[in-house]
Amino acid sequence: MAPEVAGSYPSPQAVGNAPGPGFIGFVHRRRRGAELFLLVLALAVGVGGYAAVGLGVDQEVPADLVGYGGWLAALVVLAHVVVRFFAPYADPVLLPIVAALNGLGLAVIHRLDLAYEAAGKSQHDFAQQQLTWMTLGVVLFVLTIALLRDHRVLQRFTYTSGLGALALLLLPMLPGIGNTVNGARIWINVGPFSFQPGEVAKVLLVVMFAGYLVLHRDALALAGRRVLFIDLPRGRDLGPILAMWAVSLSILVVQRDLGSSLLFFGLFLVMLYVATERPGWLIVGGLMFFGGAGFLYWFSATTGRLSHIQNRVNIWLDPMAYYDKSPGSGQLVESMFGMSWGGLIGRGFGEGQPDRVPYAESDFIVGAIGEELGLTAVMAVILLYGLIVERALRAALISRDGFGKLVATGLAAVLALQVFVVIGGVTRLIPLTGLTTPFLSYGGSSLVANWVIIALLLRISDQARRPVPDLSGNDDSDGFGDDATQVVKLST
Amino acid sequence: MNKPIRTIATFCLLLFVALLANATYLQYVAADELADDPRNRRVIEAAYSRERGAILVGRTPVAESVESDDKYEFQRVYDQPLRYAHVTGFFSFFSQTGVEQSQNAVLSGDDERLFVTKLVDLLRNDSQAGGSVQLTLDAAAQDAAYEGIQGLAESSGGPVQASVVALEPSTGKVLAMVSSPTFDPNELASHDLSAVDDTYKSLDRDESQPLLNRAIQTTLPPGSTFKVLTAAAAIEKGLYDAGDQVPGGATFQLPQTSGDSGLIDNEGRDCGTTRIPFTQALAQSCNTTFARLAIEVGADDMLEIAEKFGFNDGDYLRDLGPQAASNFPDDMNEPNTGQAGIGQFEVQASPLQMAMVVAGIANQGTVMRPYVVDEVQSPDYDVIDKIDPEEYSDAVSATTASEVTKLMVETVDNGTASPAAIEGISVAGKTGTAQSGIDDVPPYAWFVSFAPAEDPEVAVAVMIQKANIDRGEIAGGVLGGPIAKAIMEAVIQ
């Protein structure tokens, strides 16, 4: 391993000797110092939020603030040091954003623990458990960064990933360990732990799609019939999309999980479009999904079966009419009341009633943030997610290999779609579906999976931002940097 | 692959912009609408828990918030609950009525006039305190009115459905407003919400309607008290003066009628034969006279003058909740006009309306808009808004008013309204005993008056809808006169 490390990571001097700006145009800086500075700010959000919860609810700084802050700081510093050593050119913004979101989520979950306790509801220590899950997430993040030195290795596991994803998606259907929560059969119970395999499956799906598409993109890109200025794909290439469509709709029907269904199919469409550069796929896929969902809605409305689909849509159209019905919109409306009650700057920690919303700590955590921290914080959170997604797409843009581009795009799409589906659902932009808010919501599977996603993104961005790799010995040292950039262009 | 990646980046940007716009809509644009939703417990609990301003009569709070050590920070307390219940209204978790409702913005501290206070609270990080409301009520007058009705209930040995309104003629200030039966707003303001719900339901189901503010929400035929208005109309039209002779007689057959149903009599009072003095006609409450006068004035002119006094207007009193419009019918034929002239047919008036009629006469023909809230005060009791009296209408000329006053003084001095006479002060008054028009429902007793006649300080209307009294003994003068007298004495002294 050691010689590889030396070869793959040129020393600063080597970078200095590399072709000058005139040839290569632009050399990415490592910016690890900037990352450290941003991480300090992110820690301030997490620790400050925790202290503010104590001050707002109990009028005193929490007794365990030092221990808590120390633990959080240790995790963040560990992640930073590992990145500094193993992915020195990785994007410097992603880790601080994620640390800030995770810290804010912990503070809000702690606030909800206190609210449930005050309201005399069943006592939880969600925040403590979430911190444990965060620790596990950071450990997996560290392992991913340290062990996965080149993301292209993953391409070998294309079909393994696919099988793994399929198995994970089917697990909740197994009697004995499958568990239905709120009508959605997407949980498994193993001993004392419950787990949402779909959260892990989405990472595997990205790897599988990327591996498959990077090989078959040329065939899939062949144009078929041209209808209204759009080149439709050839009929014979419809196989994979049909398969994915069937899987998505069956998740919707069998597991009653509109969120995951939309997420997986949307992810597949985005990656297919990026791989083939054919907007026709988006049209065909979009029509298929919304046609299928529309048919299911019609089926549900006319026959009364699959009534959860119809309920979700009716509640979305007029939540106030279903306030005290069952199944009703009480949760959504209470969250809307809370967010409007919070207004622009929020009520402040301890001044709102976020516990009025069932599952405020998981699906509806944005509602709790909106109530006590206001529109300001909700906007900040949305912008942070926007930054993650755009930074991930940036990594995809500058990545030098097709597989990396596809994985980065896929991971960005997963995050964007998930955030849109869950925040849009909570704020009644779209029908409500059960998904967790990445990094904020209470939930181990989601948190751990998302930390791994960030690790993969950092790995890809590290490879992409690294100065032209010294892959072919000293061939590049004579200054033909242009060739290297040409290669990149051809592969895009 | 970079072109589609850029497209995806733009697409994701749009998704996030949509989320931002939608969150802004929810938390800013639609926030007020959501806050107004009656199911929004956050808003209700916050309003309920807040320190509300006091409702003051004189310098005494009749409703105030005191600190509470339970789930909510403050408890609303009414010191003299039964006496002021219908004016203050109640402040419960579920709803508000009366001044608690109409002045909610001030009491809760949300009113624009409290802007400076709110700003200071915000800067000091204090919780928002509510402003206080000073009522126009006169504690002595209110006591006299309440005790008068209570006295009637005790002497008759049963519950009384009645209402009393006293006005200051020159301003329109409501000096007293009592409605019976009453209720205890403390029970509805309790923090024990299920008890509040039970209490409210039983009050709401009670046949005697204790929650109803009869002073403004009940309209009944005013009977003979309406003759004051008929007299004013006849004089205003120039048909007669107080010193003139008017048509009299023991009976009067309404035009276009025959038989008993169209025959009006005077129930045995002395109304002469063909012509009698105007003073005698009002003093003896001659139905035969005033039915004729109304017909002579004509349905249209009667309607015009009645509306100037406030009939057919349902919201001249701005400070209290829903108010019933007193009714004077339009397009009446002659026999109906005749009956309307003695306060029957479809004429219906609230006690406040009849108080406005006599207050208008007392104030030289100018009717002032009645009001209950005198001042809005900051939480530190600094006056930040003083409500100015407002003219409602010039109903009749000053000459007409003084002529009618002469008639009414005579009615107290030598007529049916004598129970309201006060030693050494000249009082103007009129009684009324109106047929309910419904079998088994006893007649309504009315009494209206003002004093002193030459420089009126107070105008009163008393209405007794139902009491434990024999049908034959129900008469406005006997039942209402003493109550009116007590109120006038309380104000003048």
Topology:
The complex is a heterodimer of chains A (492) and B (493).
Chain A: H1 2-8, H2 12-17, H3 21-24, H4 32-58, H5 65-86, H6 94-118, H7 126-147, H8 158-170, E1 178-181, E2 184-190, E3 193-195, H9 197-221, E4 223-227, E5 230-233, H10 239-254, H11 258-276, H12 279-303, H13 307-317, H14 330-342, H15 365-398, H16 402-426, H17 444-465, H18 481-491
Helix pairs in contact in A: 4-5, 4-6, 5-7, 6-7, 6-15, 7-17, 8-9, 9-11, 9-16, 9-17, 10-11, 11-12, 11-16, 12-13, 14-15, 15-16, 15-17, 16-17
Chain B: H1 2-29, H2 31-35, H3 41-49, E1 55-57, E2 60-67, E3 74-77, H4 81-88, H5 98-102, H6 104-108, H7 115-124, E4 132-135, H8 139-156, E5 161-167, E6 174-180, H9 185-188, H10 193-205, H11 214-217, H12 227-236, E7 245-247, E8 251-253, E9 263-265, E10 275-277, H13 278-283, H14 287-297, H15 299-309, H16 334-341, H17 351-362, E11 366-368, E12 373-377, E13 383-386, E14 391-394, H18 398-414, E15 428-434, E16 444-451, E17 458-466, H19 476-492
Parallel strand pairs in B: 1-4
Antiparallel strand pairs in B: 1-2, 2-3, 4-12, 5-6, 5-17, 7-10, 8-9, 11-14, 12-13, 15-16, 16-17
Helix pairs in contact in B: 8-19, 12-14, 12-18, 14-16
Residue share in β-strands of chain B = 15-25%
**How many runs of DSSP E, i.e. beta strands of chain B?**
17
Strand arrangement across the biggest beta sheet of chain A: 1-2-3
In the sheet with the most strands of chain B, the strands line up as 3-2-1-4-12-13
Specify the number of helices of chain B: 19
* Overall morphology of chain B: elongated
The N- and C-terminal alpha carbons of chain B lie at a distance of: 96 Å
Largest sheet features of chain B = 6 strands, mixed
- State the fourth-level CATH superfamily of one domain in chain B: DD-peptidase/beta-lactamase superfamily
| CATH classification class of one domain in chain B | Alpha Beta
Instruction: Count helical runs of chain A.
Output: 18
> What amount of the residues of chain A lies in strands?
under 5%
Which segments of chain B are poorly predicted (pLDDT under 50) over 5 or more consecutive residues?
A: none
Give the C-alpha Rg of chain A: 24 Å
Q: Examine the secondary-structure arrangement and name the CATH architecture of one domain in chain B.
A: 3-Layer(aba) Sandwich
Radius of gyration of chain B: 27 Å
CATH topology of one domain in chain B: Beta-lactamase
The overall average pLDDT of chain B, rounded, is: 88
The chain-level structural class of chain A is: mainly alpha
